[in-house]
Amino acid sequence: MKKNGLTLLELLVAVTILATVSAVVYQSFRAIIRASRTVQERAWVNQNLRRAWREISCDLRCAFVSQSGDAMAFRGYARTHPGSESSRVEFVTWRRHGNLMGLVRVEYYVDADAATPERGLVRKVLGFPSPRTKPFEAELSVVAPLAQSLKLEYFDGKTWADEWAAGGTNQYAQYRNQLPLLVRITLKFDENETDPSHETISTVVPVFASDLPKTRKF
């Protein structure tokens, strides 16, 4: 009588087919996971790009200055600190902060200091520039964690400069109580935490309250 069952050859063939199918399924899932991770990383970079552009552009467009003193001055620094590759800007702008709407002094810079908890493009709310307001404790928020450097250039109607009313004896120190006509923003971002490649965006923002005459196209 013939016994039912698999021969050794049939068993080997079955195991081979099972292993092949398992490998194909594994590779398919791995490819899907890798693609999903890439999409998520790309979305995270895009979110950083959009938020950074929106926040700093909105504040610069609504920048305000007056003759009342340094608390209302617009200052642009070529370096956050000695040795830094990033710019820093500090000015008064009109926008909502919490439940309040009005003038608020803000500062933008990229923090790459390992000793601080912040990373990336930081927006610092320094307070309200009115002597009638209560003392205000500075508030920091990270606008774009992936930002690696920030470069700002200021247009006075004739030329571009990397500083604005930052003190010293340069020609732009005279603009302490004036606003630039335009600000060019260049931001460099990491693609992700492990990939050393970078992405750069650059845009030019008009400062609506500037009263400087424009003598040439930028």
Task: Quickly count the helices.
Answer: 1
Rg over alpha carbons: 27 Å
Topology as a string of helices (H) and strands (E): HEEEEEEEEEE
Counting structural domains, the number is: 1
Return the average pLDDT rounded to an integer: 79
Number of strands: 10
Instruction: Sketch the major β-sheet.
Output: 6 strands, antiparallel
Which spans of ≥5 residues are poorly predicted at pLDDT below 50?
Answer: none
Question: Judging from the principal axes of the Cα atoms, what is the shape?
Answer: elongated
The fraction of residues assigned to DSSP E strands is 25-35%
Classify the helix fraction into a percent range: 10-25%
Cα end-to-end separation: 97 Å
Based on helices, strands and strand pairing, what is the structural class? alpha+beta
How is the quaternary structure best described? Answer: single chain
Quick take:
This protein is an alpha+beta fold.
Notes on the protein architecture:
The chain has 218 residues and is an alpha+beta fold. It has one domain. The protein has one helix and ten strands; from the N terminus they run αββββββββββ. The chain is elongated. The model has no long low-confidence stretch (mean pLDDT 79).
